Amino acid sequence: MALRLTRGVLAAGSAVALLTGILAGPASAAPKPGPTHPESDYMGSSIPASERAQSTRAGARALTAAAAPAGVPGLDVSHWQGAVDWSTVAANGAKFGYMKATEGVTFLDSQFATNYAGSAAAGILRGAYHFGLPDTSTGAAQADYFMAHGGGWVNDGKTMPPVLDIEYNPYSTSDWAGWCYNRTPAQITAWITDFVNRVHDRTNQWPVVYTTSGWWNNCTGSNTAANASTPLWIAPVASDGGNTPAMPAGWTSYTFYQWATSGTFPGDQDVFAGTATELSGFAAGASPDKIQAKYTALGGASSYLGAASGAEYQIAGGWAQNYANGVIYYTAAAGAWAVSGSILARYQALGGPSSVLGFPITDETGTPDGVGRFNHFEGGSIYYTSATGAHAIYGLIKQKWAALGWERSPLGYPTTDETGTPDGIGRYNHFSGANGSIYYTSATGAHAIYGMIKQKWAALGWEQGPLGYPATDETGTPDGIARYNHFSGSNGSIYYTSATGAHAVYGMIKQKWASLGWERSYLKYPTSDEFDISGGRENTFQGGYITWTPASGAVDHHN
User: Residue 377 contacts by C-beta under 8 Å, 6 or more apart in sequence?
Assistant: First the structure.
């Protein structure tokens, strides 16, 4: 039977050093007022009568499927069951056992240590679960408390991945507002994400989530993102009619099934949806993690990445694995992607995942023109060609470049990283094509400038000259003859034709030229930059000139 681990459990070897929290250690978050009856809370204990598969019995709820489902048998317990004879449990065929460890950030189950040690001594794979309370403290705080009191994971061949028990609030009103901890679906989803990501960040294992379809779909709003990587532990409900339980939104199958509340073993009766060998692999983290899965998909050691070097390691809230010729980076949000060669060198030089680029969101990929290579990242991209090297581009400058046609635009490829201007106001990338650049400020936006217009702007002092920053891309004139950029300073522009070259016009002289009809007036195009004359300023044009003095203002003249 194929293991139905469609949500992914990460590899073991990378977490050997992360034994933190196996039965010891202080909580890291200051506890808030704790639960009032945590000794009564355990897996499925708060499922209301409306969702139970059978009516309640004294002291416990009854959940039962029509028949024991296929899979590897196991159980879940808490101090509610008292002392468990684990040797007898093993003799009766149980292969795994989960036991309650913690609730909120204040409660540690009194039987946990005994159950945890006893199950392992009897040869049963053991694991811990946490009863989550989203209204008492953050998901990360509860994950830290859980892992500090037994909820950690280590690749010892006998410890199962951690479990989050998230179900109906046992401390509020018996309605959906109360059952959902008086939180919105967005708040519940954020809490769960906080918890599972914290466990994963510290153990490199995704915790299993125990829940019901009714609770999940109502309280998370049928969210499919918070459980993107987590295996499911499901319980039957009345609407299942004794059949395979309905899956909560986002899952297509379960990994564990709590199919009855009593039976051969103490506590709840569970199955693992796979074989005994697959269960051992699940406990060992042997199921390929997302980094390993990516590496395998790329061709493993025979791929361009080559052989693995060392173990997976934590970095900037995610994970990475080094190879002979590259690195695969992973986070739950971004996925697992490979970076290599010159792009990797530039990425790491800029700070890697801790930089503005964040984590990769693509593998290294060839550009459509067949010349370059690129990786996209959460916060930008790095493009490489043998002629330009590897350079980073992001934000509104990248958006402008994309709008102009990427590398197939007149700009070609980036030849610099995004860089700050000397005046401290703007940002820019230079490009390989047409002597081009894109300049950005918060006031002007991002605009492209290149060729002879850019040369003229540079000669006039770049952004520190009278023109300031480009306020438009280079654009063609209505008569189809010329090109121009408008600028932020002095109401300025630079106009270019092959006959006249590139010349700047601004201020009152530009206003006069515009009032006459721009290049379609008798003046046609500028043939000089604005220059000093006695008592004023002047621009010459193909058909005349405009002078400006304080006394007369701007006056046009025929040649």
Answer: 347, 357, 358, 359, 360, 361, 394
Q: How far apart are CA 202 and CA 140, in angstroms?
A: 11
Percent of residues, the chain, with pLDDT higher than 90: 77
Place of tokens 């500028």: 526
Nearest to 304 by CA among 343, 330, 332: 343
pLDDT of residue 230: 93
Going by pLDDT thresholds of 50, 70 and 90, the confidence category of residue 311 is: confident
Would residue 167 show up in a list of annotated catalytic residues for this protein?
yes
Structure-token pair, residue 399: 């958006």
Annotation says 423 is catalytic: no
pLDDT band at residue 6 under the 50/70/90 scheme: very low
| Phi, psi of 471, deg, nearest 5 | -110, -5
Helix (H, G, I), strand (E, B) or coil at 402: helix
In this model, does residue 99 exceed pLDDT 70? yes
What backbone torsions phi and psi does residue 290 show, to the nearest 5 degrees?
-65, -35
- What's the pLDDT tens digit per position in 349-361? 999 999 999 999 9
- pLDDT digits 0-9 by tens, 10-58: 233 333 222 233 333 333 334 445 577 888 899 999 987 666 544 333 3
Measured in degrees and rounded to the nearest 5, phi and psi for residue 78 equal: -145, -170
Residue 25 φ/ψ region, left for φ over 0, alpha for ψ in the -120 to 50 degree band, beta for the rest: left
| Local structure of 407: helix, strand or coil | helix
Smallest CA-to-CA distance from 72 within 327, 275, 216 is with: 275
Distances (CA, A) of 109 to 20, 131, 135, 148, 199: 19, 10, 20, 13, 19
3 state SS of 240: helix
Q: Give the CA distances from residue 171 to residues 27, 135, 167, in Å, rounded to whole numbers and listed in that order.
A: 23, 10, 12
What's the rounded Cα separation, in Å, for the pair 235 and 69?
12
Can you list the domains of the chain with their CATH numbers? 13-30+38-284 (3.20.20.80)
Question: Residue 5 above 50 pLDDT?
Answer: no
Can you tell me whether residue 115 is helix, strand or coil? Answer: helix
| Alpha-carbon span 237 to 248, nearest angstrom | 12
Helix (H) / strand (E) element for 400: namely: helix 395-404
Residue 164 has pLDDT above 90, yes or no: yes
pLDDT at 7 over 70: no
Res 30: pLDDT = 41
The one catalytic residue among 41, 103, 165, 364: 165
Q: Which residues lie closer than 8 Å to 251 by C-beta, 6 or more apart?
A: 6, 7, 227, 232
Which of 167, 270, 407, 463 is flagged as catalytic?
Answer: 167
